[in-house]
């Protein structure tokens, strides 16, 4: 799967969780620091998918 830019809102909708929950989970991922930025780069999206254990 080729990852593309995604917003935090798009990812939270995809996973069926709130943006707050996504933000807390993202803090636990090593090497991921998005700060207040809403748009996530493709490599960040890949890290999140791996952390959530989603096959891609």
Characterise this structure.
The structure is a single chain. With about 55 residues, the chain is mostly helical. The protein contains 3 helices and 2 strands. Helix 1 (about 10-15) packs across helix 2. It has a two-stranded antiparallel ribbon. The model has no long low-confidence stretch (mean pLDDT about 95). The longest helix is centred in the C-terminal third of the chain and has 11 residues, at about 40-50.
Give keywords:
single chain, 56 residues, mainly alpha, two-stranded antiparallel sheet, 3 helices, 7% strand
Write the SSE topology.
Blueprint: E1 6-7, H1 8-15, H2 19-27, E2 39-40, H3 42-52
Antiparallel strand pairs: 1-2
Helix pairs in contact: 1-2
Strand elements, count: 2
Outline: globular
> Helix segment count?
3
Protein structure class: mainly alpha
Poorly predicted regions are none
Elements, N to C (H/E): EHHEH
The biggest beta sheet is recorded as:
2 strands, antiparallel
Question: How large is the share of residues in beta strands?
Answer: 5-15%
Helical percent range?
40-55%
Distance between the termini: 6 Å
Mean pLDDT value: 94
């Amino acid at each position: 799967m080729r990852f593309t830019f995604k917003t935090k809102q798009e990812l939270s909708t995809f996973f069926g969780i709130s943006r707050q929950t996504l933000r807390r989970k993202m803090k636990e991922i090593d090497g991921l620091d998005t700060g207040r930025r809403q748009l996530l780069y493709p490599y960040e999206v890949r890290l999140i998918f791996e952390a959530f254990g989603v096959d891609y």
